[in-house]
Amino acid sequence: MVWPRIQKIKINNLRCDITWLQHIRRTLNANGIAGKISFENIINEQNTINREELVSVLTKHKYNVRTELISFYKQKFYEDLRTTIDNETIIPINKDVKDVMLGLLTPPLDFLCEELNKALTKWPIDEQTLIDTLCTLDRQDLRDLLDRYHILYGNSLEEDISSKNEAYLMTFLLLKVKNAAKDAASLTLQDAKTLAETLYNAGEGVHTTDEDVFINILGNSDFAHIKYIAEEYRKLSKPWKKSGRSLRQAVLDEFSQGLKKALVAVLDSAENPATYFAQALHNALQGPGTDDAALKRIIVHRSETDLDKIKKEYVKLYSRTLAEDVEADTSGEYTTILLAIINRS
Fold it and tell me: What span is annotated as the signal peptide, if there is one (predicted)?
């Protein structure tokens, strides 16, 4: 950042950097930090919603500012803005655009709960949403999610997962959920070595992989612990290969289908969540058809936290920007609203 030229004056022997203060004030106002943001521009002369201005406000700010918009709209029209958009009383809206707008107007934790509930009630179950959510949250965030889910739906996420018979994947996810309710255990270096040896002897060290061992160890471990275990695992396999075989590569080679995706998600999130979501977005954009559900879910939710980091990882991995690939794979107002979110971060 290039700082502005500073104009200095003296007031009672105190130097006041006028230009500096003006610059700071402009910066704070631009980010919705100082003072109230005016939402009057979203109202047309006919006292109806200016859709372009509404999209601009939704995508320019994070949820703490969008809550002010919700209150403003309620006071102005005596109706919930989400209901207005959902019922398309503004004007007919493309489904994907509507989903993004509604997602941006939903509290981030509630948004994840809604996505999980939809994933569990679909047939077949939306495994990818479950993996992208439950395998990428640390213990405290997952605990908060479980509490909120119970409030919203009247039953626990653990109960909803338990009711699904999806073999190894659901067993692993259920263990992750149960583990979140417990206090974190300590892990010594010797513990990490022992667990790494156990994983090695249950996977590439034997002819038949023991899935239960991987489920138990990785499902019961925090991200910080998994990083240590993965480091020790690489040392174990080093005698066989110069660089050592990573635990991630072992999982890719030894497992298949949903459980493989879940274990990789946990390992990648322990190392760098931004890398995992960059890959997830790339997967959503590649192939014969766009995975719009994943694209919308990840961009909306991660825009509140680390979308900027994800964008940087995306360029490192694919030598293209996320914005370029989104623009190439989507169209119309859907492209516009996604790019507005991406470019804000």
Answer: none
Please indicate whether residue 189 or residue 126 has the higher confidence score (pLDDT): 126
In degrees, rounded to 5, the angle at the alpha carbon of residue 335 between the alpha carbons of residues 333 and 338 is 105
Distance CA 114, CA 118 (A): 6
Is 329 exposed, middle or buried (CB count within 10 Å of its CB: 0-12, 13-18, 19+)? Answer: middle
pTM given for the model: 0.84
The reported pLDDT for the residue numbered 238 is 63
- Cβ atoms of residues 37 and 18 within 8 Å: no
Architecture per CATH, domain 273-343, reads as: Orthogonal Bundle (1.10)
* Angle between helix 95-104 and helix 332-344 axes, rounded to 10 deg: 30
What per-residue string of b and e applies to 227-246 under the rule 16 or more CB within 10 Å gives b? ebbbbbbbebbeeeeeebbb
Name the one residue in this structure whose structure tokens are 């080679």. Answer: 253
Report the pLDDT value the prediction gives residue 305, as an integer from 0 to 100: 93
User: Bridge-partner residues for 16, per DSSP?
Assistant: 9
Q: What residue type is 155 in one-letter code?
A: N
pLDDT tens for each residue of 223-271: 999 999 999 998 887 655 555 678 999 999 889 889 999 999 999 999 9
- Whole-number Å distance between alpha carbons of 198 and 310: 33
108-186: CATH topology is: Annexin V; domain 1 (1.10.220)
Q: In which region does residue 244 sit, left (phi positive, over 0), alpha (psi from -120 to 50) or beta (all else)?
A: left
Domains of the chain by residue range: 18-92, 108-186, 192-271, 273-343
pLDDT at 272: 96
**pLDDT tens, position by position, 112-165:** 999 999 999 988 899 999 999 999 999 999 999 999 999 999 999 999 998 876
